[in-house]
Amino acid sequence: MSHQKDTSLLHVLQRNEKWAADVEDSHKGFFKTLAKSQSPKILWIGCADSRVPESVLTASMPGEIFVHRNIANQFHLHDDNAQSVLDYAVHHLKVDHVVVVGHTNCGGAAACLDAALAPPTDSESPLLRWLGPLAELARSFAPNPNREEALQALVEANVAAQVEKVAKTEVIRHAWHEGHKVQIHGWLFKLGDGQLKDLGIAVGPEAHHH
Question: Beta-carbon neighbour count of residue 65 at 10 Å?
């Protein structure tokens, strides 16, 4: 391991030590209580991008947000990882809200936009397989010559697509059937100003009574 890596890891551990001491200082007994249980009201499905750490950008404390993050904030219906997080959050933790959060300048979305214009030769990498549905979605945005505009539109459409998928799951249908009014929201995090924007595409049980 290089000296550079040693230093960066050491800084993380040192910052953690100071953070833990500061929290204990301002919230006496916080960690002792936290160790016993969690009761978050929100499940956050976000991108693995290092620039969108949910607790930091919402100024939340440990225990407030249950989290699932992956490349380009995907929710694949065949993905046991995402499905199990949703199941646990909804049925055991009884969260009230599932929030799918995309972000501007998303590398995964940008790669899919590029691939729609010039398909990659190696289609067998895990990353390309993972981004398959997003690459499919990107095709309808690729013709726009304004790349920035196309990327923004794709990022928002991607969030909307994942909100729809979450709403289709057995977990959510069952929760609604049982009277648990969990809501699914689509948000966008804007890297340029650090603001979260509600895209106004929330879905709840009232939309699925037919």
Answer: 20
